[in-house]
Design goal:
Low-confidence stretches: none
Number of helices: 16
Shape: globular
Radius of gyration: 21 Å
Structural class: alpha/beta
Length: about 450
């Protein structure tokens, strides 16, 4: 006989729900029952009042949301936050970031990942898609701190076939549980057609998705057309990448001519948008979210790495995506606050292939939940709850973060990471990490 004792009950909160048409609605004075890391029920607070539980959280005055998903980042790059400011993309890569990254050790990556996970937990991010080096270290951090992650070991063709082999070996060894994995070629301008073709074949053989950068900006698209006669999206098509389940980072250089290629793709194509970085680099275009949505392409929200974005705040990405889309389309009705919340929750989860597990608060979904306090003066009064969440609330309003039913932060106190300890060791290592006197760089940015 099943026990009636829940592992966790969150009571008295307002819950963001999705109806059968995936429209967002809010249920007030609700309770969420969790057992074995899974949401068992969403019910009225009164109905759960006498239900026994191992742990009970008082959610009065708070909104329960599905944990936010960061669909593309380079988490360990928080160690480089602020070291390459106010530079064009080419100088940013060649003069600072890629020379510094040639110094990276696995310990640097681990410490950066710990700091990044702490930042994301405090910002209500429960799952992130990471594309970086030394990913064994990141996987260890994810396991220990309790987050959920979609991880890929990045590689360039300049590494030889060993780079692709390491990416595959990592993906096969770590997938399972709270960690899912992907093959992670860097981009069409750093990975040859032959390597991309081989990657697509490996993805199909082993049932793995692919996560890479493509058509990041308009310059990359124009350079590809000049050199190869096709756009980066065309390269992905002819190499078979579009016949896999592929997550494309950025896509601000996607052209109208690329849309039929994406619409006809044989796999699930998703695009991750991180608008803060595009604004900072002064790129003239942004991810064409509306056009992608119209052809059925999933668009998830992302931050990119903190070396370019300075932040892992998906809450900010949600607000900026809505604002930038209004500006670029010239239509104040797009994106609406409810559409932005949809992208931040279920659509971001689906972009990582996790839509059947996370992204909504519903029976059978994993209990990845955040509680947001809306009692502050900057969020009152509440006339439109969706607009308040997107345009008035901040990541610092997140009070509690839960993954798989485990509380990782309660009342703003991190329970699984020691930030002071991480920052202390990372600070000691920075002089060696930031040295550029060796004249090396891991790659050349030349699209």
């Amino acid at each position: 006989m099943t026990s009636t004792v829940a592992d966790l009950i969150i009571t008295g909160c307002t819950v963001l729900l999705h109806d059968d048409q995936e429209r967002i609605r809010f249920q007030e004075d609700a309770a969420i029952l969790v057992r074995d890391g899974v949401i068992e029920a969403v019910t009225g607070a009164a109905e759960a009042a006498d239900r026994p539980s191992v742990q009970r959280l008082d959610g009065r005055g708070q909104v329960a949301l599905p944990g936010l998903v960061n669909c593309h980042t380079h988490a360990p790059m928080v160690a480089l936050r602020g070291v390459a400011e106010d530079l064009p993309t080419e100088e940013w890569f060649n003069d600072v970031v890629w020379p510094v990254e040639s110094n990276l050790t696995e310990r640097d990556v681990e410490l950066g990942a710990r700091l990044a996970c702490a930042e994301m937990i405090r910002a209500g991010v429960t799952c992130f898609a990471d594309h970086y080096f030394a990913m064994d270290a990141v996987a260890r951090v994810v396991d220990e701190c309790g987050m959920r992650a979609h991880l890929g070991e990045a590689f360039f063709s300049s590494q030889g076939p060993q780079g692709r082999e390491r990416s595959l070996e990592f993906a096969l060894r770590h997938r399972g549980g709270r960690v899912t994995t992907a093959l992670a070629p860097h981009a069409p301008y750093t990975v040859t057609d032959a390597d991309l073709t081989a990657t697509a074949a490996l993805a199909r053989e082993h049932g793995l998705p692919v996560h890479l950068h493509a058509s990041e900006n308009r310059d990359q698209t124009e350079a590809s057309l000049a050199r190869h006669g096709v756009t980066p999206i065309g390269v992905l098509r002819r190499t078979g990448i579009l016949d896999t389940d592929v997550l494309i980072a950025h896509g601000t250089g996607i052209l109208d001519a690329d849309l039929p290629l994406l619409a006809e793709a044989g796999g699930q194509v998703s695009v991750a948008t991180a608008p803060r970085g595009y604004l900072k680099f002064g790129w003239p275009t942004t991810t064409p979210v509306r056009a992608l949505r119209e052809i059925g392409i999933l668009v998830g929200l992302a931050t990119d790495g903190a070396a370019s974005n300075n932040s892992l705040d998906v809450w900010e990405s949600m607000a900026l995506t809505a604002l930038v889309q209004k500006s670029t389309t010239g239509d104040p009705r797009w994106l609406t606050s409810r559409q932005a919340l949809h992208h931040a929750t279920i659509q971001s989860a689906r972009a990582l292939g996790l839509g059947d597990r996370i992204g909504s608060i519903a029976p059978g979904r994993r209990a990845d939940i955040v509680l947001v306090d809306l009692t502050g003066p900057h969020t009152q009064p509440v006339h439109d709850l969706a607009a308040t969440l997107v345009h008035s609330a901040r990541s610092s309003d997140v009070r509690t973060t839960i993954v798989d039913g485990r509380v990782l932060m309660r009342d703003r106190e991190l329970l699984t990471l020691d930030v002071a300890e991480v920052v202390g060791e990372l600070t000691e290592r920075l002089p060696g990490l930031l040295d550029r006197g060796h004249g090396r760089r891991i790659q050349e940015y030349d699209t």
